[in-house]
């Protein structure tokens, strides 16, 4: 452990920490737009500058290692002027219609600009203009709002390992681009949504945000799609899910999600979702099974009807018992699901082999 002072506050942090880590440990706010605890230091935005006794200039706190006995100032007239100038330059090529932006009220750039005291735009000049990339079915890329912080590039490389995007071109023409500047859907993107998560502006945003607006509540839960048990945060409004993202506090996935976990939540509220057990009517009314599909199309006994779980399970157990008695155990095959817990799949394995007496059991995750 090493000891240092942040704005005259004594703080102890593990060796290898940065000045920004130490400031956070001391509960001292330093504005930043390119830093993320899960990413390597980058020092692109230049907003986290500090003064360090014995150091020249204004080093970035996110990339400066903390050392024992270091004394740091996070606020001074010199720091204030430099931060405000940097922010003004950043905003000189950024759309300022915040009220119509999908990231309004949850935009890091908007928050930091307010914190450093930017109230007007002193710089006027040429602005870049790009067509929105809507090729991906889940999110939109709006490079007009990109501040070139590089968080999306680093998240795709360091966290997801896909390298679907990178910096391209030079100078004023610099932008985040896919290989050969192809649409996002034609890249190696897996639609995990991690780049959308880390974007500090509306350069990347979920398409669902356009129609649903801001969430009013959030609920921590577990992803229902496989047995890994990734943590999710469901965003809700008026009792309906309008978005999902990975839970960074969950030790299983630390914010990572696959495309299903991140974007496959609309089935919850889909009008075709089956919420109660259904069985064919003839099973409830004791009628005979129609002999052919053609006959069953006009036969009301073949209709699906809702029933209770107890009734549905009884019908299932009686059918399995009858099939086993008439045709033997090996006439029954069982397929289990990756959406179930490991314990549930284990019980199904025991049920197949010891109760039914068959080895014909498989799992969807093996395909």
Tell me the layout of helices and strands.
Elements: E1 2-6, E2 9-13, H1 19-25, E3 51-52, E4 71-73, H2 77-91, H3 108-116, E5 139-141, H4 151-159, E6 166-168, E7 175-177, H5 194-198, E8 204-206, H6 207-212, E9 217-222, E10 231-237, E11 240-246, H7 259-263, E12 278-280, H8 281-285, H9 293-297, E13 304-306, H10 309-327, E14 334-336, H11 342-356, E15 361-363
Parallel strand pairs: 1-4, 14-15
Antiparallel strand pairs: 1-2, 3-4, 5-8, 6-7, 9-10, 10-11, 12-13
Residues in β-strands, percent:
15-25%
**How many individual domains?**
5
Mean pLDDT: 91
Structural class computed from helices and strand pairing: alpha+beta
Distance between the termini: 49 Å
- The CATH architecture assignment of the largest domain turns out to be Roll
Q: Report the order of strands and helices.
A: EEHEEHHEHEEHEHEEEHEHHEHEHE
Q: Overview of this structure, please?
A:
There is one protein chain. A four-stranded mixed sheet has the order 2-1-4-3, covered by helices on one side. 27% of the residues lie in helices and 16% in strands. The two termini are 49 Å apart. The protein is built from eleven helices and 15 strands.
Summarize the structure.
This protein is α+β, with helices and mostly antiparallel strands. Helix content is 27%, strand content 16%. It has helices at residues 19-25, 77-91, 108-116, 151-159, 194-198, 207-212, 259-263, 281-285, 293-297, 309-327, 342-356; strands at residues 2-6, 9-13, 51-52, 71-73, 139-141, 166-168, 175-177, 204-206, 217-222, 231-237, 240-246, 278-280, 304-306, 334-336, 361-363.
């Amino acid at each position: 452990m090493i000891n240092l002072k942040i704005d005259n506050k004594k703080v102890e942090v593990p060796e290898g920490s940065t000045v920004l880590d130490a400031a956070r440990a001391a509960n001292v706010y330093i504005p930043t737009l390119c830093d993320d605890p899960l990413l390597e230091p980058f020092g692109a935005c230049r907003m986290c500058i500090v003064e360090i006794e014995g150091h020249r200039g204004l080093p970035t706190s996110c990339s400066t290692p903390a050392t024992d006995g270091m004394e740091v100032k996070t606020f001074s007239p010199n720091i204030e002027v430099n931060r405000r100038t940097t922010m003004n330059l950043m905003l000189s090529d950024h759309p300022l219609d915040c009220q119509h932006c999908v990231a309004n009220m949850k935009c890091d750039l908007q928050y930091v600009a307010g914190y450093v005291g930017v109230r007007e735009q002193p710089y006027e000049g040429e602005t870049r203009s790009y067509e929105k990339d809507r090729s991906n079915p889940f999110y939109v890329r709006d490079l007009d709002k990109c501040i070139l912080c590089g968080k999306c590039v680093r998240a795709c490389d360091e966290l997801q390992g896909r390298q679907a995007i990178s910096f391209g071109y030079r100078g004023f023409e610099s932008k985040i681009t896919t290989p050969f500047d192809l649409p996002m859907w034609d890249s190696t993107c897996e639609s995990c949504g991690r780049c959308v998560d880390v974007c500090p502006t509306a350069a990347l945003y979920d398409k669902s945000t356009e129609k649903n607006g801001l969430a009013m509540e959030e609920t921590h839960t577990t992803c229902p799609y496989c047995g890994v048990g990734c943590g999710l945060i469901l965003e809700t409004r008026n009792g309906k899910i309008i978005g999902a993202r990975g839970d960074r506090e969950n030790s299983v996935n630390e914010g990572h999600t696959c495309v299903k976990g991140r974007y496959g939540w609309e089935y919850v509220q889909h009008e075709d979702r089956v919420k109660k057990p259904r069985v064919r009517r003839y099973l409830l009314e004791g009628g005979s099974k129609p002999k052919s599909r053609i006959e069953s199309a006009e036969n009301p006994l073949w209709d699906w009807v809702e029933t209770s779980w107890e009734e549905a399970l009884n019908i299932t157990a009686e059918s399995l018992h009858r099939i086993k008695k008439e045709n033997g155990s090996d006439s029954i095959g069982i397929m289990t699901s990756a959406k179930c817990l490991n314990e549930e799949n284990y019980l199904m394995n025991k049920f197949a082999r010891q109760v039914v007496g068959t080895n014909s059991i498989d799992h969807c995750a093996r395909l």
